[in-house]
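Retro notes (design track)

What went well: tokenization of the new backbones is finally stable.
What didn't: we kept losing track of which sequence belonged to which structure.
Fix going forward: every design gets posted as structure first, then sequence, in one message. First example under the new rule, 336 residues:
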């Protein structure tokens, strides 16, 4: 059985990728993921805000040398705050890249097409095999147009592409009015992969304490359907690789995304819930399933259930929607 595959030109031993999460905060954590068998590891994100804080600190040190010891005037003067910041990030990345044999993908998380994007170059120099860009942007201001939101994605991507030579993936929000069109535009702008989809923090409200409760919830397999629908629609229609993220808990979830057309399938919640070793279980079961179905390589099955080329995609989606509703309604209320 050959599970090997390629992703943005990177050779992976299999298509299961650990996506950004606290499991990659340390080199030991990254090693554990690699030992469990994943094909690649995406590191937790470095945030634009962290880079801005560092830039502000550096500016303060330059403006007011009395604030620091002279030897601390270098751009990367160590400080307690930086333990969780850019310096720490590069250190983890650099050590991880030599500690494990699988590609380590660095993740940058921000929203403006400004100077912080150049940091991608430092990530490349520290050994990142690729950069994943997470443009976590919720346009809370109701005057911001959809076109502006899209253009921001293109601008950030182009800035990062100009800064590095390694491949650049872009993790997308599920909230575009035309996901297909922004995918095509990012593809044309040079994205090496589209990662579908980012999950947004959706704060809750506690009616007892009358407070807003920020929380990151773990996903379940039912959450995979939206991303799978878009992978199936985009398969064969973009040059960029397609990475699936959301709701991958079992080998069946991996298989379904591959059948829809994903180049790689990412998982975070399941590894947080059951531990990194759960990746071994998923891969063993994926191999068993492929054997049972008579597939010998991942290419044999990839995209088998994608939306067929030459289909009118809108009609296709509408037909399945109407068909599904017709079936649900007729079983509940008799024939339509
Ligand atoms: C606790 C937690 C932390 C995460 N941190 C990041 C992050 O730093 N950067 C990022 O791009 N995605 C982050 N994610 C999102 C995951 O990488 C993944 O895309 C998302 O959770 C969907 O996959 P899943 O359903 O397998 O969890 C995080 C998710 C969780 C649950």
């Amino acid at each position: 059985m050959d599970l090997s595959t390629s992703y943005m030109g990177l050779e992976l031993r299999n298509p299961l990728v650990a996506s950004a999460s606290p499991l990659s905060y340390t080199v030991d954590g990254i090693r554990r993921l690699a030992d469990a068998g994943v094909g690649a590891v995406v590191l937790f994100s470095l945030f634009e805000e962290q880079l801005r804080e560092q830039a502000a600190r550096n500016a303060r040190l330059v403006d007011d040398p009395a604030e620091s010891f002279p030897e601390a005037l270098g751009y990367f003067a160590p400080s307690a705050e930086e333990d969780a910041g850019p310096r720490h990030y590069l250190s983890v990345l650099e050590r991880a890249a030599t500690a494990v044999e699988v590609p380590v993908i660095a993740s940058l998380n921000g929203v403006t097409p400004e100077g912080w994007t150049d940091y991608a170059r430092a990530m490349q120099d520290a050994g990142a095999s690729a950069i994943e860009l997470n443009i976590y942007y919720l346009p809370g201001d109701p005057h911001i147009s959809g076109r502006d939101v899209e253009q921001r994605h293109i601008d950030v991507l182009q800035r990062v592409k100009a800064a590095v030579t390694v491949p650049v993936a872009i993790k997308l929000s599920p909230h575009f009015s035309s996901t297909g069109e922004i995918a095509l535009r990012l593809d044309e702008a040079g994205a090496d992969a589209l990662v579908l989809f980012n999950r947004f923090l959706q704060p809750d409200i506690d009616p007892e304490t009358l407070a807003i409760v920020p929380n990151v919830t773990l996903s379940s397999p039912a959450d995979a359907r939206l991303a799978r629908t878009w992978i199936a629609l985009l398969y064969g229609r973009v040059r960029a690789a397609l990475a699936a993220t959301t709701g991958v808990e079992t080998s069946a979830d991996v298989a379904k995304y591959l059948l829809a057309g994903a180049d790689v399938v990412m998982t975070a919640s399941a590894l947080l819930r059951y531990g990194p070793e759960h990746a071994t279980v998923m891969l063993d079961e994926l191999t068993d399933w492929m054997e049972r179905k008579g597939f010998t390589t991942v290419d044999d099955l990839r995209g088998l259930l994608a939306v067929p080329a030459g289909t009118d995609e809108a009609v296709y989606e509408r037909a399945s929607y109407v068909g599904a509703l017709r079936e649900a309604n007729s079983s509940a209320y008799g024939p339509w």
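Added context from the reviewer: The longest helix spans residues 313-333.
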